[in-house]
Design goal:
Elements: H1 14-23, E1 40-44, H2 47-57, E2 61-65, H3 80-88, E3 91-94, H4 100-108, E4 114-116, H5 128-131, H6 171-175, H7 205-222, H8 227-251, E5 259-262, H9 268-273, E6 277-280, H10 292-304, E7 309-312, H11 319-328, E8 331-334, H12 350-365
Parallel strand pairs: 1-2, 1-3, 3-4, 5-6, 5-7, 7-8
Length: 368
């Protein structure tokens, strides 16, 4: 099976990461909730992080999400009003490297506590830098203490995952390890040219579970009076994510083809987790225009690997996807990166949309 494997750069087990991240929090004194109603004021940069805060925080938090539903998160510009709200927040949760304007605003903010989600799990190199690393520099890894149970057994593309026994100290370390920009392709013409660490960690249920644990610990530390509630709600959410991981693993275990085509590279972690190969029209930036050579390459990939579907997403134009599909006789369908929930979403929350994504993948890949 021709499976694209991620070679870990800076990696971390969930427990070690959460501890490191929490000790690195800025101004993380146990001040508790500051609102008049006793609620913790929490700001999240976009939906996947806001969903975790809402699920774990429940009635104890007042959540503000910077990115509005239907807004493309990569293009967000932080308003003066939002910057002012940051200063009043007890806790800010963001994902460094996804939204440049948020990174800048958070860096300038004097908010009590800031949590970078990239420090709560592992990001991987992408592109030429990853492809050129000697494989013998990365011995086999053992499971981290939080992920050795049956729900986290790895197979196929999972063995080399970075969530299994390495540690790192901050999201900054990830950003410094971005992959090269030269295009590399394997013997099937699969493109591996991306432009740095992939920030789409929430589309891998295992990584998302690690982030959930870290967010839970941050809420406990910021609001110790309600720590038992946060802990219980975190545990419940992690169990649901474990179950989702198991469902994806069994649902994508036996397919006609392992290759799927998307408009932009949001699903690399998901593909690697379940032994698949994502081929994207654009790179990590959903607005980037593909070259004519890339389109021709994808036409060859579709024929060689029996690909019958081009996936697009609801927040970005489907023009290129439909053009490629028309030229090759393929169909189009939605594979949602879940950067926000709108009326066009195939579900009302993260879990429902992920289940819809699984159904779409099973159809496109010919799952048995």
């Amino acid at each position: 099976m021709n499976v694209r494997r991620l070679i870990p750069g800076t990696a971390v087990a969930a427990t070690a990461t959460a501890l490191v991240a929490l000790t690195a929090l800025t101004g993380c004194g146990n001040a508790g909730a500051s609102g008049d109603d006793g609620k913790l004021d929490v700001m999240a940069s976009f939906y996947p992080l806001g969903y975790l805060v809402d699920e774990i925080g429940g009635d104890h938090v007042r959540l503000t999400t910077l990115t509005e539903p239907g807004q493309e998160p990569h293009d967000l510009e932080v308003s003066a009003r939002q910057r002012a709200a940051m200063e009043e927040s007890d806790l800010i949760v963001y994902l460094k490297g996804l939204q440049p304007a948020v990174d800048e605003a958070v860096g300038q903010s004097e908010a009590r506590t800031k949590v970078d989600a990239t420090t709560l799990t592992s990001l991987e190199k992408t592109g030429a830098a990853r492809s050129e690393e000697p494989a013998d520099e990365h011995p086999e890894h053992t499971e981290g203490p939080e992920h050795g149970e049956p729900g986290h057994e790895h197979q196929d593309g999972d063995e080399a995952h970075a969530d299994e026994g390495h540690t790192h100290e901050s999201g900054e370390a990830h950003a410094d390890e971005g992959g090269g920009e030269d295009a590399h392709a394997d013997d099937h013409g699969h493109d591996h040219s991306h432009d740095g660490p992939d920030p789409h960690i929430w589309l891998d249920p295992v990584r998302y579970s690690e982030v959930a644990e870290g967010v839970g610990k941050a809420l406990e530390k910021a609001d110790p009076d309600h720590a038992p509630d946060y802990r219980n709600r975190t545990d419940a959410l992690v169990k649901r994510l474990d179950a989702l991981h198991t469902t994806f693993r069994s649902g994508l275990k036996d397919t006609r083809t392992e290759v799927f085509i998307t408009t932009h590279s949001a699903f690399g972690y998901l593909a690697d987790r379940y032994g698949l190969i994502e081929e994207s029209i654009s790179g990590l930036n959903p607005e980037s225009e593909p070259s004519g050579a890339r389109i021709k390459e994808l036409q060859k990939v579709a024929k060689a690997d029996d690909v019958n579907t081009v996936f697009y997403e609801t927040l970005v134009s489907d023009r290129t996807a439909k053009s490629l599909a028309a030229d090759t006789g393929m169909r189009t369908d939605v594979l949602d990166p879940i950067e926000g929930i709108t009326e066009k979403s195939r579900g009302d929350d993260y879990f429902q949309v992920m289940e819809a994504n699984l159904a779409a993948l099973r159809t496109a890949l010919g799952a048995k």
